[in-house]
Structures are given as structure tokens and as C-alpha cells.
Amino acid sequence: MKDLPVRRLLLVHAHPDDESINNGATMALYAAAGAHVTLVTCTLGEEGEVIPPGLAHLAPDREDRLGPHRVGELAAAMKELGVGDHRFLGGRGRYRDSGMMGVEQNHREGAFWNTDVDEAAAHLVEVIRSVRPQVLVTYDPDGGYGHPDHIQAHRVAMRAADLAGERAYRRDLGEPHTIAKIYWNRVPRSVAEEGFDRLRAAGTRPFPAVGSPDDVPGVVDDARVTTEIDGSAYADRKAAAMRAHATQIAVEGPFFALSNDLGQPLFTTEYYELAVGTPGEGHGGRERDLFAGIPLPDGGTVPRPAGEAVHGAARGAAGGAA
Ligand SMILES: [Zn+2]
Hints:
Elements: E1 8-13, H1 18-32, E2 36-41, H2 66-81, E3 85-88, H3 117-131, E4 135-138, H4 148-165, E5 181-188, H5 189-201, E6 209-210, E7 219-220, E8 227-230, H6 235-244, E9 250-252, E10 255-257, E11 262-265, E12 269-276, E13 282-283, E14 286-287
Parallel strand pairs: 1-2, 1-4, 2-3, 4-5, 5-7, 6-11
Antiparallel strand pairs: 5-12, 8-12, 9-10, 10-11, 13-14
Helix pairs in contact: 1-6, 2-6, 3-4
């Protein structure tokens, strides 16, 4: 691809909706700042549970049309985040959602969990060598919470990052490219606890019950978190993107719930652990920019979109003006 922006960010996720929940504010921020943001989603999320009763007929045990429906939800979410480059690993429908750990769908033909990691990674190598991102965001080795597709997304992303840089590997997939920094999605335990305190203080309405930090993928001790991205100026964008995944997420103000009906806080500062690469300069110990420390042709560091205030951050005086 010719003439891409200087900063290029690649995110690898398991299902449509994971990107908006984990990284929606980060994606909106970097897209608005002029970075090239590429999302690769590994499955169509065919095995998800459907929240709105009116769409229950799409479910895998009924019409099994949830996958194509979620393609549309993802496209709408990307519009909200300002991200134009979103792809499915190996092409749309190549890999199927494997369902939760232990279910028979894990072993189905074509299930992502059942797929050879190197074979799947080759598709991602082609994307990496084409877009040439400096930064990759994905899950930790446990996939954040043990879902087979999330674990597999981690394995495929890490393997592809290795292979993309190997000079001898598959030159038909493009010129070798080494990704400078790889991050895993995280939530600091103190932030998760504080978020649930807020939710409890607000009463359980409108959700039947309140979750706990154990229900949030990627929660770790604060000390492991190397990087935080303040996306509060893009809170509205993130909430809108999450709403676009209407079969999967119910958003209510600064909270949301998945199909388990457990209320959770919606985080607009998003957190990361630098897993590969050299940390850049931090503030208060944590990096504030995924590209920190990476030599870039324009020499810039923290991206601040020139027109940040106009980019929809209605609750913005607090977020923007500095
Ligand atoms: Zn997922």
C-alpha cells in the first residue's frame, strides 16, 4: 500500500465487538489524529448470544445467520470510530467462531480454535507486510479471559509478528517487516474495582446485576500496566461503536452489559501492557502514546488531533483543551 500515514496501528481481535469494548477510544483517537488504523477480526462471531429478543432468530441454533449480521454491526462500529481499514482474517467467513471453552463447537471443521496457527498467521503476515504497522495490539496468552478464539487470536498475532520479520519466510507475501511494539489489552485492577464501585453506587439499574473485576478480560495488578491512552475525548464515539454491536452489547450511560446481563463500567481510558519492544518516555511511570519512543519521520510523539474539540467530544471541555 502506497502513501499510508506515518503512524500505523494494527489491532487483532477474535470477534466483532471486541475491538470496540477493548480499544474503541484508542482507535477513535488515533484515527482522528491521522494514523492509519487497521483492524483484523478473526471470526464473524457466529456463536455469540443474541440480546435483543427481536433478533433471536439469527442465533446459531436457529437460523445461524448471526455472522453476516455482525459483519454489518462491525461496519457500523468502524464508521463511528472513523476507521476505514477493517478486514477479516483470511477473508470474511474463513474462520468460524469456536464458542466458549469446552463446547462441541470448539472442534467443528473451520472453527478458529481448530485451525493451524501457522496457516492462519500467514494471512496476517500478508496484512502486516502490506500495511507495515509500527504497533500491534492484541490479547495476552490467556486471551484476556480464556475464550478459545481470544487465545487463538493471541497466538496467531504473535506468530505472524515473528514471521513477518523473517527474511526467509514467504517472500510472496511481501517485503519483511518488523513491528516495533506489541501491546496486550489490560485493565488495572484498581481501575476495574473503582469502576464497579461507581456502578454499585449508581444502583444496579438498568442491569439485573452488577459484575465484578473477575468478569473483565485482562485485569491485572496495576504494576503490570505500562501504558494508558486517555480516550475520554472520544467517549461518545466508543459508546456509539459499542451500541452498533446491538446483538451483543447493551450500553447505558457510562456502563454496559453483555448477554450475561452483568453491568460493567465502560472505560474511556484504555490500558495496555507492552509485551514486545522498548518503552518510550512515560508520564507518572506509564506511557501515554502507543508510538512513544518509535523513531518516526515527523519526529512527533503524542498525537493530538488539531481539531480534537470538533471531533465529537461533546462532553469535552475536560478532555480536550490542553
Ligand atoms: Zn470476543
